[in-house]
Amino acid sequence: DPVRPVVISTWRHGLAANEAAWNVLSAGGSALDAAEQGVRVTESDPKVSSVGIGGWPDASGVVTLDACIMNEKGDCGSVAAMEEIENPITVARMVMEKTPHVMLVGKGAQMFAVENGIPKKNLLTPNAKAQYEKWKSAHPDAIKSRTINIENHDTIGLLTLDSQGNLSGACTTSGMAWKLPGRVGDSPIIGAGLYVDNEVGGATATGVGEAVIRACGSFLVVELMRQGNSPEDACRLAVERVISRSPDWKEIQVGFIAVNKQGEVGGFCIQPGFDYAVYDKAGGNRMFDGKSHVT
Ligand code: SD4
């Protein structure tokens, strides 16, 4: 096939994730394996402050992780508010493959991971701890308020089209820095942070999760592609829907990326500043600036 395989993922840290996903795909591996292996790189990079180890903690200083995964058969798995497990995407995949459930949260998700041989690990790096302490001393009452940081929202969502033409996706995050304890965003929610339909395409989201959840963002992008829109047009129309349901849209960022069954890709966001990484045969691994509603 002249187009396949294709990998697309959110933000600049997507380049390294794409590389790992591409290694799986170019060896003939599956879209699902590639999606998992790709985002594991980001989860395990302590320098990425919004995913996995090194992620910034919640308002009580605890790192909690959210992730979900979906394959070409429509199977899906998810974990949310999980502590001390470095690679939540792998646990999400285990939920998908080893249980009759889709989603496990909190202590139960962690117990399930440990029972399946994944060791617990401290995820709060010295740098993340220092950032937390700085924020905490500037916002002593923040745990009682709804103050959230909107800059640190660089979730990785990654979509794969393998050489057989199958689609999969993965999405993983530490969520919004300084979130209220127990808060879960869009990233582990199938249809919000991620959706894949093997007949149509896949989509994933980044940004303020509450706004994405209210619009069923990623599901909406896929449905818009089903109606004949290109990936970019579908992302743009979904961003417009998010805006129409978010009175605070001028203050928030939301971005979507998508790939369709033909291997075409696209992205769109509210505010300038969102970029995404695409890896394909024709162009190699490179960044694109997401077109934005605000220009
Ligand atoms: C969330 N969408 O928890 C995530 C945050 C994020 O890039 O970083 N998105 O709301």
TrEMBL record:
Keywords: Hydrolase, Signal. Substrate binds at residues 183-186, 206-209. Its EC number is 3.5.1.26. GO terms for molecular function: N4-(beta-N-acetylglucosaminyl)-L-asparaginase activity. The active site is at 155 (nucleophile). InterPro entries: Ntn_hydrolases_N, Peptidase_T2, TAT_signal. The keyword Kinase does not apply. CDD domains: Glycosylasparaginase. It is an enzyme of class 3 (hydrolase). The record marks 154-155 as: Cleavage. GO terms for cellular component: cytoplasm. PANTHER family: L-ASPARAGINASE, N(4)-(BETA-N-ACETYLGLUCOSAMINYL)-L-ASPARAGINASE. This is N(4)-(Beta-N-acetylglucosaminyl)-L-asparaginase.
